[in-house]
Each structure stands twice: as C-alpha cells, then as structure tokens.
Design a protein that fits this description.
It comes from Meripilus lineatus. This is Arrestin-like N-terminal domain-containing protein. InterPro entries: Arrestin-like_C. The chain is mostly beta strands. The chain has two domains: 197 residues, Immunoglobulin-like (Sandwich), CATH 2.60.40; 200 residues, Sandwich (Immunoglobulin-like), CATH 2.60.40.640. The chain has four helices and 28 strands. The longest helix is centred in the middle third of the chain and has 8 residues. The N terminus is likely disordered.
Amino acid sequence: MSLLAQPGPNGAEFVYEEPPEYAQVVTRAHPIQTEHAYQLSKRSKYRLSLALTSRARDAREQPHFVQRDEIMGSVELTLNHEEVIRSVTISVIGDLFLRTEATRFLSIVQQLHASDAREVSPSSILSPVIRSGKLKGQHTWSFRIQLPKGVVFSEERNRYQLPPSLCDTGTRARVQYSIVVRMKRGIWSSGQRLAIPFEYTPLTRPSLPSIMRQISYMEQRPLIGPDEDSDGWKSLPAVNIYGKAFSVQLVEVTVTLLSILKYTGGLTRRSYQLSYTRGSIIPLSLSMSASDQQVLDLLSAPSTPQVHLVRKATVIPHMGVPTARALLPWDSNVETVGTAIWWRTPHPGSVERSRRRHLQGEIRVPKDLPPNCSILNFSIEYQITFETLKAVAFSITSKIPPTIEPVEITTTTPQAPLPVGLLVTPTILGDRSEIV
C-alpha cells in the first residue's frame, strides 16, 4: 500500500495515510471545542496573538490533540506604528529530549505572511500571502495543520508512530510538542517567538476479545476458564519451584500462569499477543500443583503469588537496526506500575482438589500510563512478570527461572464489551470505543 508522505526534519518523512489497523477506531475523546488564547506584546509597538481550539477539558489546561486531528486557529498581529514585517510563520514541532541531547522528529511549517518572494520559506506546506511595504493596524491569518500519523527517517527507514507527550524521570527522557508562532521584523529589529506546548495522544487499541469472553462481559458473568475458552487465554510456560516448607520439608511446586489472549499489530515496532487499554484491567488465572496438600494450602493464599505489570523505558546511544536496539542498552528505567490481586476459585473433583489449587486475579492498569512507543533511540515497553511465591513458612532453595511476557498498553478501548473487575473497579465501562 502506498503512503502519502511529506518531507520533514533530519531526513524524515511524515506519514499521513491512516493504517488499516486504526481505520475504524471510534473516538469518544472530548470534542475539539475548548478555545485557547495566547499573546505576546510590547505595549508601545505590537501585540502578537494566537487563538486555537483543542480537546482539552478546560481552557486553563494545555491544548490537547489526538492522532488524525487538525490544529486550526488564527494568528493576529496588531501594530501601533508602521513597520516592515518580513515573515510570520506558525509551526507544529515535536522534540525528543534525552538528558543534554535534543532531536527534532516533527516540524510542520505554515508560512502566513512574507514581505517579498525572497522571504518565502521553502519548507512551508502552503504558499504565504505576500504583501510588500510596511504594515500597520490589525492583521489576521487563519491556519490549518493536520497532524501526521507517523514519521519515517531516511537514515533508518524505520516507520514510527508519533509518540505521546511524556516525561520519564528515570531516564530523564522527555517528548514535547509545541505550537510556535515566529515573527521576523525589519533587518535591524529582533524577531519574536510565541511557543505554546500541547499534549498529544496517539491512537492504539486492542483487537476484539474471544466471542465467549465478549458474552461473559455482556452478561456480567465470571470469565470462562482456559479449558473451555482456549482462544481467550494465553498459557505461559509452567514454572517448577523447589523450596522448603516449615523449615524442614522439601517440596516441589508447579505454577502455571495464564493471561487473556489478545492480538494487536500496527505502527509499533513489534506485534503483541497481549494488549490492554490503560485504565482497564488485566484478568489473570493461576494454577498450582504439589503432592502435599498442606503446602498447597499455604502457597495458594491470595497474598503469595507475586505477579506485576512492569514498565521499561530504554535509551540507546545510537540509532540503528532493531538488533542494535536490543544489544546496546545505554540507560533504562524499570518500574513496577501494577500488582496482581488474587482470590481462590474452587476446582471440581475431590481427588483433583487434593493436588491442585486455582486462583484468579487481575491487575489494574493505571489510567495515566503512557502507551507503548518507540521513536529514534528511545522506547517504552511493558511486560507481565512472575517473580516468586512469598509465604512466611516457605523458603525457596533454587533459582526461579524468570517468567516475562511482553504486553502492549493502548489508548483506546476495543469496539466490544469491556471487562468489569471483580476486586478492582475500572474507570472505563461500556461497549463502545473511547480514548482514555
């Protein structure tokens, strides 16, 4: 499929064609109706004003836009005296800050005014109004800039979805978007710059859950287990844990962790079988078997399994191919952002009951998490980790192999019934897609 692209900074091209995976997203974000007004003035000479509308819930907040939005508004210049104004431009820029380094990955320029043809910017997406001579009084220019879906860098030929606005304190990485109005005055006068930061949210979503799981959500019934709904769950490898119970008894426990299966593909660098919307829940199922029933009762307590949702922000020193991205970590920040809460569930059969225990659980996905993203040499990824069994009268005598499953955190809900937590109340409910 061909892509509609426009040139950008640092050898980048902006991708405007909507990827098929996101073509049918129904957005229920706050509408573009909040008005924002900003100005820069020198009382005796001029006033430079910017007016625009955004999805922010209040005019006192930063403007907020999502993927596919158009930034629309007007620039007004009021001059108290006659003056040569060489150029007026408005730009939408995106910068990646990594400690002392800064890289501009997005720069869309629309020139609104030029005093003559020599002042016309070759990077402007539209031709400006050319008006020679001095200006005086009030002058207004409207603008309309569409945000691209992604960007392709010629050095890498990697296609990136525009990342969200974010600030990671661990790696000191920051993604910042701004709307900048620049006014170039006469040759002997200084130029003026009005810069307004704004929040940006990309659109990503999980695919549909299994049919049986959708029915459970619609009827608000308990989830059907992996034995009856194999398409709705993904089984992680079983873990054998060797330890000592009550300081004397050597035991072997087999733990199998299961989590809901979903599949998502798109502009992200990799495909994920597990994907969840921020603000929702991650349902989990865990089974445990051992020959000693007393030990099973001890280790199947809801507080024993330690399962977490972990965020990993990574910076590498140089841009390169995906293999270099994996082999040359420069700086990373690993943080637990969610912990599973468990409860016991019965298992039919007295003989089976004596050898196995079953737990169901869920992890609350914080609503303010940035979604998975990757831009140049910075990325944010998530994973579910099973670390250990933690009980007062049980000590592990052998190293537990790590259980790590990559997951994707998305910004929009699927076009399907949404999960309802049993122990944790989610912040989003309903049966239609929305940005959260």
